[in-house]
Structure formats: structure tokens, C-alpha cells
Design a protein that fits this description.
The complex is a heterodimer of chains A (519) and B (430).
Chain A (H helix, E strand, L loop, with lengths): L4 H19 L5 H25 L9 E9 L4 E7 L3 H19 L9 H20 L3 H10 L1 H11 L4 E2 L8 E2 H30 L6 H9 L5 H18 L8 H8 L2 H26 L1 H27 L4 H21 L3 H32 L10 H4 L1 H14 L6 H14 L7 H29 L6 H4 L8 H19 L2 H19 L2
Chain B lengths: L9 H26 L5 H20 L3 H19 L6 H32 L4 H10 L6 H18 L7 H8 L2 H25 L6 H23 L4 H26 L2 H32 L16 H15 L6 H13 L4 H30 L16 H19 L5 H12 L1
Helix pairs in contact in B: 1-2, 1-8, 1-11, 1-15, 1-16, 2-3, 2-8, 3-4, 3-8, 4-5, 4-6, 4-7, 6-8, 7-10, 8-10, 8-11, 9-10, 9-14, 10-11, 10-13, 10-14, 11-12, 11-13, 11-15, 11-16, 12-14, 12-15, 13-14
Classes of the chains: A mainly alpha (519), B mainly alpha (430).
Chain lengths: 519, 430
């Protein structure tokens, strides 16, 4: 696997398969599904091989990559590679994609069209994998944006068809149409400015788009003053919309609620990580001085996000919307960890990202499946789920426990260590702000426990409502269980052996922090 | 050739190639259209070819007379072609408007040229520029006035604000292939003329002209995009979109006038022009294909149409999102090189224009996504009359696939445009 071949396959195999699927007639649905699954499994397999070849003793170095000229006129290259920070996210992405495809075998919402859905998932996977391995700003940008179109169509075509009124619009509009364009416009707004920031770095940084080279320049203090503040501001805008950080989060609840199950899962599990990954990979190491200047602001916004997300959850009646707002809170912990600029905090962010991907992905699987079974997401009408759908209910209960950060499960480490990081941020940062943020975060964990337990009480426990008693409700089938069980196992494994993640990330994070902030 | 008044270099050859290919695609678009009605086939093709000849002359012209003849040869046939649907009132109206404003613009250009000739007594651009600089006239009111007159005249051809008002009406009335040609080839001819004039004569004209151009460019983007948001007629939507795109193409030249970095500016504008040409032809093709299924002037009647013509549906996604500048489709690189040239010197006008451009890219997305949304996500309207000719004729398929391949390849391997950078530096230094 010299010359970046493995990573190149991981990135482009899904795209090539998607083009191949376009050529298969629509009627051969089974063939389409099998080709998609085969391609995703192969991609996952290759990513495992890449992980085996990865030298964990030098996890701080970029490995297994390559650099080939791409757009010579602007000195942009096809430069890829992975280190301990990107490897876990890459594996998460290839793995969740497989599960999403398995789930879609039998659970396509109207208007079915397996061909369209499968090719969109594959194109999406190329965008996600590409973002995690790209080491050139322009390449990163292209992959970062490549996910927009498939997700837009996934929400817009297979999304929720209920009609709702939106303030500011004259006519009522279907949720999916509103949510899809809102998602698209918000993210494009952020990334259009992000691109200007990339160009700024290019012109001040010896006309290179190479991330490693820019990191060298950045850590030697090449970017300073107003220029660097402006660049950090636009990068912040681009990444923070994607994370999403309060107050740029408003697209997220709409998109999650409207998206079909698979869309929500991929959105929550991977797409949100593109933003926080961007902070760790690009914004912090290239502009360390500005990162220090902005860190308190990020910490405060994260703390607001945590509290706001939890309070919003308490007010929800819609199951999927509740989980969507819980994402705002959980990503708040991730960003709080990042803002501390310490190795503990950023490690917390890394494991938090993976854990959130697994746990919230699973929550969306389960809630999507329940919405499909019950034809409603209204928690006021649900109840007694444990009696009606015992398997689904059990997994929902387990996942909710994981999501509230129960020790021994994956969600615990990210929250706990993020608070630890915020307690002791990088020397020189305003300690009062960070400790207040930590306190806010701690209150947030309590609120998180509160709304998740309340959700369980309303949905899972109690006696079933009368309207469900005479209906035939199907519990989780085999496709669903195959997609879900691995996530349950991973949640436990990472909870018990967090070294699975830290083993990869720790060295890389320490290298990053010491290079950027000398700590 | 001809004492420096007609030059054939790499730059002009690339542009000639573009014009010939675009005209060829227009022919393919026209075949079914012209045959389907009582049109004068021979004259139709003759006039298009005449216009092509004019465009080819413009790319190589380096003196005032040749340039003027080229510009007018390219645009005069279009007055006739835009009124080709003789029985249609809208077509007549659009054609008359186009004609009157076209003649006005020709006279403005000519007036500007005559001022230059009067001041310098020369026709060839390099001589004019030399004399302007030697006699310290480059920043004189006369030079500025002639530049503004020329800009106004060419402004009509490239439909920048405030000279854009004819475009939506003419585009709507003209036969669709003619509209496609107008919005691509005619516009490109005007831009090539503007690029040559700005960079060969007015490169020393000081910041004043550049600042005017920067403002025009920004306002053009806003007016085009905000008006496009409100359209229900797909052709008018594309008309306003092409006004907004003109703002983007103008931006690098505008800033180059301030920073004097014409090499980057010309490279960016021409790259944008080339990519824009193919995705815009593709967009008109999409409208043509959809209108073959449901003949309506209101795009909201096309609900759910992609299920019946998936190919047209895929074309719609590719071309319209490319116009919006979404990677990995070609349009992103076009926007990218424009942003790059705007930011290259870190100068405040460039920066402001880049921010305006970024905001406009987002506004553009809202209406560019609309047709895809209608045909893929909306449910079919019940009271709409469907026509029977749902089979896509092969000439149209060729247009679609050629534009599709060019649009996608230019987005994934933008390296193919490196040649152009070299060509523009040869162009500027010769």
C-alpha cells in the first residue's frame, strides 16, 4: 500500500461504484443493493487494512499518504494522508456507511427508489472519507462540499412530507423542502467564506495549499495581526456552521427531523464531525495565536450550546427533534474540549466525536425505525414501547444511557474529559471563563440525564396507549439488528477500553498541542 | 498580421475554439427546433455563422476598426434571430428592444473609439497606448470618457447593470437555442472585447475606472441574483442568472484595473467564461428538454417531471448546481479562480468584491436549486397538459453529454486550464 493507494481506494471506490450503479437498470433492485453493500464492505475492509498498516508508534506523523500534482496553475495537489486524529474518524465513516446501507436494504421510505438512495449514500461516503484524508486545503474544500448535494437530495426526496408553516414564508411548506434548502444554504454560507479564508492563507503562506506546510508556517508565527484574525473568523464560520455551534445551529433540528433515517444517521454520525475535525486539523494548528485569542469565545459558545441544547430537549415533543437538539449539546462538549487547547481537552473532543457518532447514530436508527412503525414521532402518543417493541425498546434504553454519559459506556469519556480540560485550560487562557464554562457543562450533564430519562419514561415505560393495542406493530427485524448490534458492542468496547481511541489520537494530539501552543 | 492589427496567438486560438464549439452546440440545439416549425432554415444557420465570424474576428483584433467590425458582425445577426418567432408578440417585442439598444450601444462604442482616434491619431491598440502614456494622457478626462463610453456600449452586449434591462425580455421572446447562444457566445464576445480593450489600451488609466467597474460588478451580481429569485419563468430566471454571472466574470477585470495584475485577472475571467459557456448551454438544454414534456412558461408546472425523464433530471442537477458553484462540478473552479484573483493583492476593493461574491454565491444557490427541487421533489401537478414527445432526440443528447463531460471534467481536473494561464500571460506580455 505504498503511494497512498489504500487511502485512494477508500476515498474513490464508493464514487466509482455510484457511477457503476447509475448504469444498472432500476428494476434490478437486489443487484443494486448488493453492489452497494459490496462496495461499502470493501471500502471498510480496505480502511481496516490501512489501519493495520498504520504505525501507531508514530501516530503523530502523517502516514500512508501521497502527493500528486492536481491543479498545477494554483499549486494545489492531491495530497492525502492520515494520522492518529483522522484514523478513528475515517474508520467511523466507512463503518457507519456499511451499517446505513444494511439498514436501507429493507427500510427505504417513500418513494423507495433504491438506485437513487444507494448512489447518494456512496457519493456521500466519498465526500466524508475524502475530507478526513485530505491534506490540501482545496482538496479538503471540494470533499467538504461534496457531501452537500447528496444530503440535500436525501432530505428533499425521502424526507418528512408533513406540511408545516414557517415564520417568514407566506405559504405552508413541506418539512423536507424547507429543511433541505435551509441545510444547504447555511452550510454553503459558511463554506463560501471559508474558501476566502483558505485563499488568504494561500497568498500569505508562500502560495501553498498544503496543510502540513501551512502548519509549519503557522507554528513558526507566519500569520499574525488583523489578517490572521479575519482568516480565523471565516474559518470559524465555515466549521462552526457544520458542527453546529450555537447560534449557527438552527438548520440542524430541521434537517434531522426531516431527513430519512439513514440521512439523519449519516448527518449526525459523520457530517457534524467534518466541522469539529476542521477545527482540529486546520484552524488550531495553522493559526495557533488566533486560536488562543478565540478560545474563550468558543468555550462560552460551547457552554451556551450545551445548556441551550439540553433545555431545548426538555421542551421537545418530537422524538427525532429531541435527539437533534441533544446533538447540539453533545457537540458543545466536543467544542468545549477543543477550546481548552490542551491535550486532555482535544483527546476528549476526539473520543467525544467518535462516541457521539456511534451513540447518536444509533439513537437516530432506533427513533427513525420507531417513527416508521408508529407513523408518529410525537412522544405524547408513544408510551409503553418496552411492551410493544421489546427489542427496539431495549436498544433505545441502552443508547439513551450511553448518551447521557453513563460511566462504562462510550459517551462518558468525552464529557468527563472535556470538563476536565476546561477546568485546566492552556496556561494563559482566562481561567474564570473556562471554569464557568465547565460549571455550565456540568449542569448540562445533569440536564442531559434529565431529558433522556424523561424521554425514556414517556416513550419506553408505562402502559401502551389504547390506539396501539389493536395494531400489528413489527419489532426490529434482522436487517435492523445487524445494523444496530455492532454499534451497541462498540459503545461498550470504547466505554471499557477508551484506549481503542486514545491509542491512536493521544500521540497525534500531544504533537499538535506542543507544536501549536508549546504546551 | 496586417501591421499588428490582427493577431493570432494561443489566447485567441483558445477563444476561437470556444466560440466554434459553442456555435456547433447551438446548431445541434437548433436542429429540431428549426425543423419543427415554419422557419427559414438556410437563413437561420447563415446568420448564426455570420455571428460566429464576428466573434472570431474579435478575439484576434488589435485595432479599433477591426474590433468594431467584429463586435457588430457578431451582434447584428442576433437582432434578426431573436425575432425569429414571427407570429409571437413577445419575440417581436424583445427583438425590437434588443435592436434599438443594440444600435445605441454600437454608437456609444463608436463614439468612444472616435475619441481615442481623435486624441492619438492611431488605430492599433499598442500605438494608442504608447501615445497615451508618452503624452501623459492615460489618466486624462478624454481617455476616461472614451473608456466609459466604450464600457457602456459593451455593457449592453454583456448585460451588466445598468445596461441589462433588455436581456430578460429578449431572452424570453427569442427561440431557445438563440437565447442560449445570446447568453453564452454573444456575452463572451463582449467580454473578450472588453478584456482586450481594458488590458491593451486602458491599463494605465488609474484607479477611477477600476473603481467604477468594481461597483458595477458588485451591483450586477446583486441585481441579477435578487431578480432571479423572484422568477417563475425558467428562461427569465436564466436571463437574470446570466446577468449575475456577468458580474462574476467582470469582477477580476475590474480589480485588475486597480491592481494592474491583468495576467491573473484575464486568466480568471477567461476561465470563468469557458466553464460558464458549457454549463449555461447545458442549463438551456435542460429547459428545452423539460418543455418538450410539459410546454409551460411556469417552471412550477414541472413538478415531479424527473421521474419521467430521469436523464433531463440528472442534467438539471449537474448544470444548475454547477452554475451555483458547488464542487465537484465545474462552476466551483470558475468561482474559485475569480476569488483567487480578487484576493491576490489583498487590496481592499478586491476583498470587498470577494465578500460580495461570496454572499451572492449563496443567494444564487437558492434559485439554482429550485428547478432541481421542482422536478425531483415536488409532486406532479394535475391540471397540466403533457405533450407526447418524451423521447429525447439524439442531437440534444449530444449537446447534453458534451456539456456534461466538460462541466464535470473541468471541476475534477481543473488542471486542464493551466494552459490558459500561460496563454493569458503570453497575451498580456506580447
Amino acid at each position: 500500500m505504498e503511494s497512498g493507494l489504500g487511502l485512494t481506494i477508500v476515498v474513490f471506490l464508493p464514487l466509482v461504484s455510484a457511477i457503476f450503479i447509475f448504469l444498472i437498470p432500476k428494476k434490478q433492485e437486489m443487484l443494486i443493493k448488493l453492489v452497494t453493500l459490496g462496495s461499502a464492505l470493501l471500502t471498510f475492509g480496505v480502511s481496516l487494512i490501512v489501519a493495520l498498516q498504520f504505525d501507531f508508534n508514530n501516530a503523530g506523523d502523517l502516514q500512508l499518504g501521497t502527493k500528486v500534482s492536481w491543479i498545477s496553475s494554483i499549486n494545489s495537489n492531491y495530497e492525502i494522508g492520515i494520522d492518529g486524529i483522522s484514523l478513528p474518524l475515517l474508520l467511523l465513516s466507512t463503518f457507519i456507511s456499511v451499517l446505513a446501507i444494511i439498514y436501507s436494504f429493507e427500510h427505504l421510505p417513500e418513494p423507495k427508489n433504491a438506485k437513487g438512495m444507494m448512489s447518494l449514500i456512496l457519493i456521500l461516503e466519498t465526500g466524508m472519507n475524502g475530507t478526513f484524508v485530505a491534506l490540501d486545503l482545496i482538496l479538503f474544500f471540494v470533499f467538504f462540499e461534496l457531501v452537500l448535494l447528496p444530503m440535500y437530495f436525501m432530505i428533499g426526496i425521502w424526507g418528512d412530507k408533513t406540511v408545516r408553516s414557517v415564520s417568514g414564508l407566506k405559504n405552508d411548506i413541506e418539512t423536507r423542502l424547507y429543511a433541505s434548502i435551509k441545510f444547504f444554504v447555511f452550510t454553503l454560507f459558511g463554506s463560501a467564506f471559508m474558501l476566502l479564508g483558505f485563499l488568504g492563507l494561500y497568498f500569505r503562506g508562500n502560495r501553498t495549499f498544503s496543510i502540513p506546510e501551512l502548519i509549519e508556517l503557522g507554528s513558526s508565527g507566519a500569520f499574525t495581526g488583523t489578517f490572521a484574525s479575519l482568516v480565523f473568523a471565516v474559518l470559524f464560520l465555515g466549521f462552526a456552521v457544520k458542527v453546529p455551534m450555537w447560534p449557527l445551529h438552527t438548520w440542524l433540528p430541521d434537517a434531522h427531523t426531516a431527513a430519512p433515517t439513514v440521512g439523519s444517521v449519516l448527518l449526525a454520525a459523520i457530517l457534524l464531525k467534518l466541522g469539529s475535525y476542521g477545527f482540529v486539523r486546520i484552524a488550531l494548528p495553522i493559526l495557533p495565536e488566533q486560536a488562543v485569542a478565540w478560545a474563550p469565545a468558543i468555550a462560552v459558545l460551547s457552554a451556551i450550546g450545551i445548556i441551550y441544547g439540553s433545555l431545548a430537549c426538555l421542551a421537545q415533543t418530537d422524538l427525532k427533534r429531541l435527539i437533534a437538539f441533544s446533538s447540539v449539546g453533545h457537540m458543545g462538549f466536543v467544542m468545549l474540549g477543543i477550546s481548552s487547547l490542551t491535550s486532555i481537552g482535544i483527546n476528549a473532543a476526539m473520543i467525544g466525536m467518535v462516541a457521539h457518532g456511534i451513540i447518536t447514530g444509533l439513537l437516530f436508527f432506533v427513533s427513525g425505525s420507531m417513527a416508521h412503525t408508529y407513523h408518529t414521532r410525537d412522544m405524547g402518543r408513544l408510551g409503553g414501547n418496552m411492551k410493544l417493541l421489546p427489542k427496539t425498546g431495549a436498544i433505545l434504553a441502552f443508547t439513551a444511557m450511553a448518551s447521557l454519559g453513563l460511566p462504562g459506556l462510550a459517551g462518558f469519556w468525552g464529557e468527563f474529559m472535556a470538563l476536565l480540560g476546561a477546568y485546566n485550560p492552556l496556561p494563559g487562557l482566562n481561567i474564570t471563563i473556562f471554569r464557568s464554562s465547565m460549571v455550565a457543562g456540568a449542569i448540562g450533564t445533569v440536564l442531559t440525564a434529565g431529558y433522556l430519562l424523561w424521554m425514556l419514561q414517556r416513550v419506553n415505560l408505562g402502559e401502551p396507549k389504547e390506539e396501539w393495542l389493536d395494531k400489528e406493530l413489527h419489532d426490529a427485524d434482522n436487517y435492523e439488528l445487524v445494523a444496530w448490534i455492532p454499534l451497541v458492542i462498540l459503545t461498550v468496547l470504547i466505554g471499557v477500553f477508551p484506549k481503542l481511541i486514545f491509542g491512536a489520537t493521544n500521540d497525534a494530539v500531544i504533537a499538535l498541542v506542543s507544536k501549536a501552543f508549546g504546551g | 498580421m496586417f501591421e499588428g492589427s490582427y493577431v493570432i496567438d494561443k489566447f485567441s486560438l483558445i477563444l476561437k475554439g470556444l466560440f466554434i464549439l459553442v456555435t456547433y452546440l447551438t446548431f445541434l440545439l437548433s436542429v429540431n427546433f428549426v425543423e419543427s416549425d415554419e422557419y427559414y432554415q438556410g437563413e437561420y444557420y447563415f446568420l448564426l455563422l455570420s455571428s460566429l465570424l464576428g466573434a472570431l474576428v474579435v478575439t484576434s483584433s488589435r485595432d479599433l476598426l477591426t474590433m468594431f467590425i467584429g463586435i457588430e458582425l457578431a451582434s447584428t445577426p442576433m437582432f434578426l434571430l431573436s425575432g425569429w418567432k414571427k407570429g409571437d408578440q413577445k419575440s417581436n417585442e424583445g427583438s425590437i428592444k434588443f435592436f434599438l439598444l443594440g444600435v445605441l450601444s454600437a454608437s456609444l462604442i463608436l463614439y468612444g473609439f472616435s475619441l481615442l482616434y481623435g486624441v492619438t491619431g492611431k488605430l492599433v491598440f499598442s500605438d494608442i497606448a504608447n501615445i497615451l502614456i508618452q503624452q501623459d494622457l492615460a489618466q486624462s478626462p478624454v481617455a476616461l470618457l472614451s473608456a466609459i463610453l466604450i464600457l457602456a456600449g459593451i455593457g449592453f452586449k454583456i448585460s451588466i447593470v445598468p445596461f441589462h434591462s433588455w436581456a430578460p425580455d429578449t431572452y424570453e421572446g427569442a427561440p431557445l437555442p438563440v437565447t442560449a447562444y445570446l447568453s453564452v457566445s454573444s456575452k463572451a464576445t463582449g467580454f473578450v472585447a472588453l478584456i482586450i480593450l481594458m488590458s491593451k489600451i486602458f491599463f494605465e488609466s488609474g484607479d477611477g475606472l477600476g473603481i467604477i467597474l468594481v461597483f458595477i460588478s458588485g451591483i450586477t451580481m446583486f441585481v441579477g441574483n435578487l431578480s432571479a429569485l423572484q422568477q417563475t419563468n425558467p428562461v427569465r430566471l436564466l436571463a437574470y442568472s446570466s446577468i449575475a454571472q456577468a458580474g462574476f466574470i467582470l469582477a477580476p477585470i475590474a480589480v485588475a484595473n486597480i491592481t494592474n495584475n491583468f495576467e491573473d485577472g484575464v486568466y480568471a475571467s477567461v476561465t470563468y467564461l469557458i466553464i460558464y459557456a458549457f454549463m449555461n448551454i447545458g442549463a438551456f438544454l435542460v429547459i428545452n428538454l423539460l418543455q418538450r414534456n410539459i410546454d409551460s412558461e411556469n417552471m412550477y408546472d414541472w413538478g415531479g417531471l424527473a421521474k419521467e425523464t430521469p436523464l433531463a433530471g440528472i442534467f438539471a442537477v449537474i448544470f444548475f448546481f454547477s452554475l451555483a458553484g458547488i464542487p465537484p462540478l465545474g462552476g466551483w473552479f470558475a468561482k474559485f479562480v475569480v476569488f483567487r484573483s480578487l484576493l491576490s493583492t489583498g487590496e481592499i476593493f478586491g476583498l470587498s468584491l470577494a465578500i460580495v461574491g461570496a454572499i451572492n454565491a449563496v443567494i444564487g444557490l437558492v434559485y439554482y436549486s429550485r428547478i432541481s427541487k421542482i422536478i425531483w421533489m415536488d409532486s406532479p401537478k394535475e391540471d397540466v397538459q403533457k405533450t407526447e414527445n418524451s423521447i429525447i432526440p439524439s442531437p440534444l443528447k449530444v449537446v447534453g453529454f458534451v456539456s456534461l463531460i466538460l462541466t464535470i471534467v473541468s471541476g475534477i481536473f481543473p488542471g486542464i486550464f493551466s494552459n490558459l494561464g500561460e496563454a493569458s500571460s503570453i497575451f498580456f506580455n506580447s
